[in-house]
Amino acid sequence: MKKINILTKSVYNRIAAGEVIDRPYSAVKELIENSLDAGATEIEIYIERGGKQLIKVVDNGVGIERDDMRAAFFPHATSKISCADDLDNITTLGFRGEALASISVISHVDLTSVTEGNCAYKVNCIDGNVGAVEPAALQKGTVVCVRDLFYNTPVRAKFLKADKKEESDVTNFVTRYILGNPKISFKYFIDGKLTLQSYGGGLDEAIAQVYGSKVISQCFKINAEKESIKISGFIGNQNFFKPNKTYQSTFLNGRYVINNTISTAVSNAYASYAMKRQYPFYVLNLEVPSDMVDVNVHPNKADVRFVDNRPIFGAVYSVISSVLDGTATAAEFVVDSLRIPEIKSTIDEKPNKIYETPKTEAYKKVSDSVISFELKSADVSDYKEEGKAKSPEKQLKYYDPFLNEPFESFISKPEPINLTVTNDTMSGDLFGDSRIDETHARRMREQQMIEFEKCKYKGNLFNTYLIYEMCDNVYLIDQHAAHERLIYDRLREKIVNRRIDRQGLIIPYLFSTNAQETEFIENNIKIIRSLGFDLKPFGIGSFRVDEVPADLQDINLEEFFNELLSDMKDIKDIKLEDILKDKIAMTACKHAIKGGMELTQEEVDALFEMLKGDMGLKCPHGRPVCVTLSKKDIEKMFKRIV
Questions:
Q1: How far apart are CA 190 and CA 550, in angstroms?
Q2: What's the predicted TM-score (pTM) here?
Q3: What is the pLDDT of residues 398-408, one digit of tens each?
Q4: Residue 51: enclosing H or E segment and its boundaries?
Q5: Nearest Cα to 383, choosing from 639, 596, 574?
């Protein structure tokens, strides 16, 4: 009994289609590339329901001859190449002859086209069955209309993402074609609404249309040639970084590619300037001889291979690093001479400088209005620079800035954190129950608890460490770390329990997003709002924040949202709260009493009472609140005992 089956045409065509067209964006990609290869200067793209219901591409290219219209749907039918030797010198975006054939077996396709001086014709294709060629009305170019993508492949349709996600992926690819073909006019419609438009005015205009006009001022425009490799485009300056890699575009001989050799060269050039979780912005166009690259690697044609990676890496790295470092050769590469970096010797090392992102005006105004402690019963002039009162009769009482209550009333016992947290380990689950064994944690807490009512205050060291004595033990308490931890716990509790007061911004904070970031924000906007941020859409690809959590009113919103967007691929609900941990810790540190600040006896007593005898606490940065010395330890220091 034979076991090998010869598959029918309908089966193997559908299998092939699954490799070429896996999502709506790939169908859009193939159709746009066909339009570009046809010499179009104006292209319109329409999608509905993320491309599942409709994909329509209209161009003003040379069109398809009547006699070729049915053949256009056949597998491996192409006008781009005619023999095997042509594969060694590919200059078009498409060449495999699979796109339209693959799309037609998994959807309903209508093709209308006209060539110069001839009448227009149309043909439809359903399930790979090509209909008759009929007269139609069209002035110029070609119109391809794809409906009900994957309607006859339910397994593939089941794995499609939500409409908004598919839409954002299509939008992402459309923006790449706008950037990669800046002299071509594009119009992009989503569910009947014009979303993106470029006018073919060049790369400057294309970048402004996609990312906004402000981006141009933060970039270097480059044009260089090294060993037959031409490199042009825009690269972000030494201060301009993005929270993820979605702002990076590379085009090789006009084709959008994702190539590790090029991206690594760029990353290495920026290595001395970028901080952790920062990614450079760039739109790079590379032109290389066709015999140096193989584009016939995968049906999606986004993966390419170089005959030798070294000259590509070297050219990209040397050009970009020269511009960023401001070496003498930078003048040869930067197009606008007014924006050439400061020229440095080529033997100078790169500055290992951390560039701070300037705060928005709204942030500055709100931040300036926040005072760590509200001074009562005395004038500010009665305070020395170190924060000490000049005279005993004018001792000041500190007020907790978050509760608007006297310092002494802030006495609720904080829930201990059973996890040491440092700046490098801020990913612990501090907003939920610790995953540490509860029995062990409880025993540790019990061992470190003391009967604070029996402790006697013995003074302080350096106006920083409070000294308490009980039985045969001495407790040195860091007043800043203790207060910082108490404030942190109170803020954390309010965030977790959603008991959040909001503070309005004098000037709303605005930030722009690309298609993928927009989709992420929209999916998580309810969670972000529940954390106390009044966030709402503000036009296409833009959001505004009108209110922030009152307890975090001096938060740097640019840093916060950059950090949020840097984790957009795998973020979860708790992750949003985790991101706030760092901000809360910084806020607690800023508003806690400082080391070196002289406290009144009332304030000392209030702080110690708030600790409720928990000597095992740590500040949010992992430093201990208290250090214990026994009488035996001290006597050993003085050699009284051995």
A1: 38
A2: 0.64
A3: 333 333 333 33
A4: none
A5: 596
